[in-house]
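Hi, here's the filled form for the chain we discussed.

Project: internal
Contact: R.S.
Residues: 308
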Amino acid sequence: MPENEVTRTLIVPLEMEEERCDRFLAEELPEYSRSYLQKLIADGRVLMGGKPVKSSRKMKTDEELTVIIPAPEELSVEPEDIPLDILYEDADVLIVNKPKGMVVHPAPGNMTGTLVNAVLAHCREDLSGINGVLRPGIVHRIDKNTTGALIVCKNDNAHRSIAAQLRVHSSNRVYRGIVHGAITEDNFTIEGNIGRDPKERKRMAVVRTGGKPAVTHVKVLERLNGYTYCEFRLETGRTHQIRVHMASKGHPLLGDDLYGPRKCPFPLEGQTLHALMIGFVHPSSGEYMEFSAPLPEYFSKLLDKLRK
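And the returned structure, exactly as it came back:
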């Protein structure tokens, strides 16, 4: 085996019977992105009985998969001296307050100006390499136009610990947002599997079959003349979860032109959504920690305008 390659052996449990191979791997190896795992499959690095398997193969209970994970590639993403709003930092984790308009990690056609570029300059070589060359240290993400608290992992042990907490939903994540319409309930929970919208691949949707389970707890904070200021507590962390769940109830986020009205009555850059707080068990000390990011200025000013 080449130096620094890692081999993982996985046994398919009963509850994953008939699940696609790539989805099974995503559940069993949450520290890796699904796209990264799909690439491992495509490269012939996921084996059953010594033979490569396909992403679409349906799993059977007690089958054994061998996953060969290559050594991290040399980074091709350049560090950039972009200021970071740091909420907390130690040898294991970095908690940042991500600004509006910043993409978390690079992608083809968008290789600069991301949070990863900024973090590379700040942390230098102290980042986990688990998610490959484009996502060093990234264990979860928030959308480009969502602001707020986000964890960056500075080593692989921290990455595995935080990823496991996200997987079993033991971490705490609280968001604030403004939605269209007057919500009558004070507290309610939205449950509905989220998957790709079959009619529009750029969107996610609440789907009847397939998708991944998603649970969002909603608390009304204030009713504001045709809009509602809400707090959202996540049990799961699916792509666009809050945006999709609220749109499914007829209350899309203000400024969200993907899931709500294309025209916004206010000069906003995307959805009015903020990751207010994140809480987790520290990977080294074992102590529970919480960090809060203050509402951005645009959000506070908009609230004041709506109150008048």
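Let me know if anything looks off before we file it.
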